[in-house]
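Morning, I've got a small favour to ask if you have a moment. I owe you a coffee for this, so here goes:

…
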Amino acid sequence: RIGLGFHPLEQAEKISQRRKKEHRTARSAFLKERGISDVGQKVFVYFGGNNHEYFEKAFPAFLKSLEEGQRRSDLSNIVLVLQQHPGAKANNIDGKILMEWMQKNICLASPKIVISDQSSDQMQIISEGALYYQTSMGPLFVWAGVPVIQVGHEVYRDLLVRSGLCQIATN
């Protein structure tokens, strides 16, 4: 037996059931509240961290990959949501990094980008996929049935990576 994280299985089971029952309606409501027409675009949520490596390396690497991606492909059919770590909201470091990036890089090929004001559980219900780097929520994503990609500047060998339970993107 190995520990799977800090979240009880009951929480994952509730999220999984809610994803099955509420995904479409919750997703549509979320988009509508933000003035985004629901035309079938994919919603991906980046679940942020709250440490130096995340702010200084992982999140900027994700944004650099996003910048390169929108140069090669039209990403306008994607909604990207930043779900800030609860401990990071007060200083809003990643929010400021994101806003600065958006001022320099938003173009017609960019995804629609918003910062979440919802709970992490609600964002798992809404999302088509979870993006993360160094989060204790990884096992919760897997148990709840949310497709997961670890995204950062380098591979962080957490439980999901070691167990082959997520995809990995470093560029």
Q: What stands out?
A: Helices lie at 9-33, 52-72, 93-105, 120-126, 138-144, 159-163. The mean pLDDT is 94. The longest strand covers residues 42-47. The chain is about 45% helix and 15% strand.
